[in-house]
Amino acid sequence: MKNLFKAIADFQQEVPTIHKATKGYGYSYADLPTIFEVINPLLQKHGLGFMQQIEGTDLVTTIFHVESGEHVTSTAAIPQGVQLKGMNDFQVLGSSVSYMRRYCISSCLGLVSDSDNDCAGEQTKKQTINTKLFQQAIDAYTEGKRTADQLKKFLEAYELNETQKKAIMLIDSNLV
Question: 6 vs 32, 47, 68, 69, 89, CA distance in Å?
Fold first, then answer.
């Protein structure tokens, strides 16, 4: 990992703050094209590359050193069940994936692309999960299409009712 870590450290010494040029939803942010325009030449200069893949409901970001093959991987859950005003399900998914890609690549490479607004937002109550979506999640787990960790991450986004909690306890007590 010596080659990878040295290349990332050298990259971080050169990469500038990436300015927020895109406005939307009441704030400004650095969009993916802006981020890529800044980082791609520096990644190439330092022999680095990255991939971002969707695996189930997760975004997997891999940073790699081209010559040595050394790599690090980070996995982040893509929020599920989100509804955005005026958007259909496909638009919401696209928005979620773009959002997660920006934040994951920024996190993995140590980029500064926005102001630190830690704790600036107002915490909202988790939404309840509808019966159909809950059953689909449980079925995916029991059929081996989703691991216990994936199901647990998925369910953490929702407020479960007592019946749903009992059902999960019957399936696997480690999930709650």
Answer: 25, 10, 12, 14, 42
Alpha carbons 114 and 126: distance in angstroms, whole number: 26
The tokens of 102 are what? 């920006």
- Tell me the backbone φ, ψ of residue 140, rounded to 5 degrees: -60, -40
pLDDT for 10 beyond 80: yes
Mean pLDDT of all residues in 26-31: 72
Mark out the alpha helices in the chain (DSSP H runs): 2-14, 32-45, 89-109, 131-142, 148-155, 162-171
User: Residues with Cβ < 8 Å from 74, sequence gap 6 or more?
Assistant: 60, 61, 62, 104, 107, 108
User: Is the full-model pTM beyond 0.90?
Assistant: no
